[in-house]
Amino acid sequence: MSPLRVVHFVNQYFGGVGGEEQANIPLEVRDGAVGPGRLLQEILGDQGAVVSTVVCGDNYFNERRDAALASLGQALKTAKPSVVVAGPAFDAGRYGLACAEVCKAAQEMGIPAVTAMHPENPGILTHGSEIIAVPTGNSPVEMRSVLQTVARLALTLGQGKELGPAAAEGYLPRGRKLGMRDDPAAKRAVDMVIAKMKGLSFQTEVPIKLPDRVTPAPRLTSLKRASIALITTGGLVRKGNPDKQSSGNPTRYYRHAVSELESLRGSDWEAYHGGYFNYYVNSNPNYILPLSFMRVLEREGAVGSMHNWIWAMPGVGTPVAKSKRFGEDIARELKAEGVDGAILVAT
Amino acid sequence: MISAIYELPMTTGANRVVKGARIEHVCGDPSLGEQKDFEYGLRITRMALKALETAVDKPTLFDPADMPPAVREVVHAS
Fold it and tell me: Could you report the predicted ipTM of this complex, rounded to two decimals?
C-alpha cells in the first residue's frame, strides 16, 4: 500500500519563521515536512508521507480568518491529502484556535483531520465537539508522545476507518454517543440471556478482553552493567501536583528527571491517586517508586546504574486498551534511551 | 513488576511479579520502624533485580521472603 498523503499545519513559530514578531505572516505552503512535521514523518514511517506543510502566522489566521481559510482550501485542493494534521498547539491559544479551524475546514471538504492541544486551549473550548484532538500538557517537551497518538489516529482516519470511543483511542471526548440503541439496557440484557439459554447467537455489548500472553523478556545477563528504570502506576506527582495530573484514568503519563536525587522526599513528592489511601506514600514516596533503595543497590554495585528518568501515572480506572498504549509508548522510550530493564511498581 | 496484589498481575500475564508489602506501601512497611522498614523495601527492590536476571517462561512470582540468606546478610549490613 502506498503511504497516506498527509498535510501538516503549523504556526510561524513551529514553521521556523520566527516568534511573535512574525505572527502576521500570511499562510504559505512548503513542500514536505517542516519542524515537528519531521518527527511526525519519522513516526509515520512508510505508512504516511507529509507531502506538504502549511505555515501561517498566529495573528494572520485569527485576524484574517477568511483569507487564511481560502488559502488553506486552495492548498488542500492542490495537495489532495488523505488526512490533515494540525499542531500540536499545546496551550497556545491563537495557534489552538487556528488548528481547530483548519481541522473543521478540512472536514468540510471531506478530509479527516486530527490535532492536539491542551484540553483548556480556546481551540477546544470553542470547537471541541467538532474536532478530533489529542490532549496535551503545556509544553512541547512531550512532542514525541503526543505525535505518536496523533499519528496513530491520523493513519486510522486517513484509511477511512472510524475511531472508537475517545477514552480508548486517546482523544478528547466530543460529547457524543457513538450510536443509540432501540431497547433499554434491561431488555437487551434479558434478550441476551434468553438467546444464550436457547443456544442462539447474540452480540455482547461488553466484550471481555482476555489478557494478552506476553512472551517473557530474556533475563538480564549482566545486571552489574545494566541501566535500570523505575516506573510507577501509584500516581506519583510533584508536591502540590503542578502538572495537574488526574487521580485516575489518565490521559497521559509523566516523566521526571531524578539524576540529582538520592531519594524521593515527602516534602517534594506525593501521591495523587484515587484508588488507594495515599497517606503512607505521602510520607515516603519511595514506597511506590523505590529510588532510595535503588541508590543503595547502585552504590553497592549490585546494578549498573539507575536511569535518569522515571515514569509515573495513576493506574486506577484505566481501560486495558489505553494502558496497553501507554505501556507500548513507555517501552519505546525506554528502548530508545538505552535502558536494559525496568521495574514497575503497581499499587 | 512489584505488586502487593500479586495474584492480579500473575493472572493477567505479567511474567516477573515481585510480592510487595501492602497496596498503601508496596515497597516497605512503616509499622516496622524506620530501619526495618528500609531493609524490607531494599529486600523487595533487590528481589526485583533478581527477577530481572532470572529466566522465566511464564508468569512467575518472586517472594522477597525467599531471598537467599547470604543476600539477606548484605541487606542487614547496609
Answer: 0.90
